[in-house]
Write a structure and sequence with these properties.
Length: 452
C-alpha cells in the first residue's frame, strides 16, 4: 500500500453499517473538525477542559505498544501477554493503563481514540489519532466491529488497552479489500476518553408519543441528566445550535411534566433554572441576544438573585443597546461577585460603548438637524441606538456611490433594525427587498432603474 493510498484510507473509519451497505473510500476534504471535550453544565464562563490532554500526555513518549526501539512486534508475541475476554478465547485483551471507576454501561455515548493494525504492517490502517478527532458512538447500537465493541464494554474511563480480535469477530473470511485482507486478525489500541450515560434518552426516544406523554417524573429526570450532558458536550465543542436543540427538547419535557409533590416541583425548578441559564449563554454565543434575554429573564423569574442570570441578562441587554438596563443588572451581579473579572470587563466595555454612543448621537443630531438641534424629531424616532442609525446611513451612501446595483444586510436584523434600513431606502429613493429563500432570510436594497 503506497503512502498516498494510506492517507486516503485513514480519513474515514470503518463501521459495521458501512460494511453491510458496501463501503467506498473517499478523501475527507473537510478539515474543520471539532475536538470532543467537556462535561460540566455549570461553568460555561470558564470553559477549559484538559481531560484529553492529561489522558494522552505520555502516550507517544512512554508507551510504544506496537514497537520496541522501532522494531515491529508480531501478533504472536503480543498474544503471550494478553488475556481472553470471551469463552472461545477469540478476543484477547491487555490493559496498558489501568483506571479506577465503573465499567462503561450499555447505551452510553462513548468517546474513544484508537489505532487499528494488521499483523506485519508498521502503520495503522485506521487511526483516530492521525485524524486528530476522537470517535463518538452509542455503545450497543451495533455500529462497531463486534470484537471491538465487546472489548470496549470491559473498559473504564481513561483506560488504555490492547484488544486482539479474531477474523470471526472482525471482518470475516472476506476482509474488506483493499484496506483489510481476507481472514485478517485486527489489533486495536484503544483509550476511553469519556462516556456519557445515554440509556434513558435512547429508551425515551424509542417510546411512542403517547407513552412519552405518560412518562413518570423519575423517567424525565433521567432523560434530563443524559440530554443535559450531551448538550453540554456539544457546547464545549462550540456546536451551539445542536446544543440549543437538546436543551430545548428536555426543557419542554420538564415544563410540561406533572409533579406529584413539592419536592418534585423543587427538583423540576432546579433543572429548569440550569437549562434557562445554559440556553441564555448558547444564544449569546450565536449572536442572538434577543433570545438570550428571554432565557435569562426566565432564569431570574425562578431565582432573582442568580448571579449568572444577572450577568447574562446584563450582557444581552448591553448587546441590544439597552445600556441603562444592562448597567443595572451587571452591577447587581458585581455586587454578589465583586472580583469576578468577566463582570468587570463587560462593565468597562459598557461604559466605553456608552461614551461612544453619546458622541455619535450628538454628531447624528447635528448632522441631520443642524448644530442647534440636540434631539431627534418625532417623525424619525428609532428604537435603535444613534450609532447604528448613522452606520446604516453611511453604508447606504457608500452603496449609492458604488457601481453595485444591490446591497444586502444581515439576515439576523431585527424588525426595529430593518425599520432604519427602510427609512433610508425611502429617503434615498431605493427599493427595499425582503425574501425568504429556503430557510434563509434575504434583506437588501436595490437601485431603481432610473437612478443608475
Amino acid at each position: 500500500m503506497n503512502e498516498n493510498m494510506s492517507k486516503i484510507f485513514l480519513n474515514k473509519e470503518i463501521s459495521l453499517r458501512d460494511l453491510e451497505k458496501g463501503i467506498e473510500f473517499e478523501v475527507d476534504l473537510d478539515n474543520s473538525n471539532h475536538s470532543d471535550d467537556e462535561s460540566s453544565d455549570e461553568n460555561f464562563d470558564d470553559l477549559v477542559n484538559n481531560d484529553e490532554a492529561e489522558l494522552f500526555s505520555g502516550y507517544d513518549e512512554v508507551l510504544k505498544p506496537r514497537y520496541a526501539s522501532g522494531v515491529m512486534v508480531p501478533f504472536c508475541k503480543l498474544k503471550e501477554r494478553m488475556e481472553p475476554i470471551t469463552e472461545d478465547g477469540l478476543i484477547l485483551k491487555e490493559v496498558l493503563i489501568c483506571r479506577a471507576g465503573e465499567v462503561i454501561p450499555d447505551k452510553s455515548v462513548v468517546f474513544v481514540h484508537y489505532d487499528a493494525y494488521l499483523d506485519d504492517q508498521k502503520e495503522p490502517f485506521d487511526s483516530t489519532r492521525l485524524r486528530k478527532k476522537p470517535f463518538k458512538f452509542l455503545l450497543g447500537d451495533g455500529n462497531l466491529i463486534p470484537g471491538l465493541e465487546m472489548g470496549i464494554k470491559t473498559m473504564k474511563k481513561g483506560e488504555l488497552s490492547r484488544i486482539m480480535v479474531h477474523p470471526s469477530y472482525a471482518f470475516g473470511d472476506m476482509g474488506c479489500p483493499p484496506r483489510i485482507p481476507e481472514n485478517a486478525e485486527i489489533l486495536y489500541e484503544v483509550q476511553i476518553i469519556k462516556f456519557i450515560g445515554g440509556k434513558a434518552a435512547v429508551e425515551f426516544e424509542e417510546m411512542s408519543p403517547e407513552a412519552q406523554k405518560q412518562a413518570s417524573f423519575e423517567k424525565i429526570v433521567e432523560v434530563f441528566h443524559c440530554e443535559n450532558q450531551l448538550a453540554s458536550d456539544l457546547f464545549r465543542r462550540s456546536m451551539y445550535k445542536p446544543a440549543i436543540s437538546r436543551y430545548r427538547r428536555v426543557m419542554n419535557l420538564l415544563q410540561d411534566i406533572s409533579v406529584a409533590n413539592e419536592e418534585e416541583d423543587k427538583q423540576r425548578i432546579e433543572y429548569l433554572l440550569k437549562l434557562y441559564l445554559n440556553l441564555s449563554v448558547c444564544y449569546l454565543n450565536v449572536q442572538n441576544p434577543q433570545k438570550a434575554l428571554i432565557y435569562a429573564d426566565l432564569a431570574l423569574k425562578l431565582d432573582p438573585d442568580n448571579v449568572k442570570g444577572l450577568f447574562r441578562m446584563g450582557k444581552a441587554l448591553y448587546l441590544t443597546g439597552s445600556y441603562d438596563r444592562a448597567e443595572h443588572y451587571l452591577h447587581l451581579a458585581k455586587k454578589q461577585k465583586p472580583f469576578d473579572n468577566s463582570i468587570t470587563q463587560v462593565i468597562k466595555e459598557l461604559e466605553r460603548k456608552r461614551r461612544v454612543h453619546n458622541d455619535w448621537e450628538k454628531m447624528f443630531c447635528q448632522k441631520m438637524f443642524g448644530p442647534g438641534e440636540t434631539k431627534l424629531k418625532s417623525d424619525v424616532m428609532f428604537e435603535e441606538p444613534a450609532d447604528f442609525v448613522l452606520c446604516i446611513e453611511e453604508q447606504i451612501k457608500e452603496f449609492l456611490q458604488s457601481d453595485e446595483s444591490e446591497f444586502s444586510f444581515s439576515s439576523n436584523f431585527t424588525e426595529s433594525q430593518l425599520e432604519v434600513v427602510k427609512y433610508f431606502a425611502r429617503t434615498y429613493d431605493l427599493a427595499f427587498v425582503f425574501k425568504i429563500m429556503g430557510r434563509e432570510k434575504l434583506n437588501k436594497i436595490a437601485k431603481r432603474k432610473n437612478s443608475y
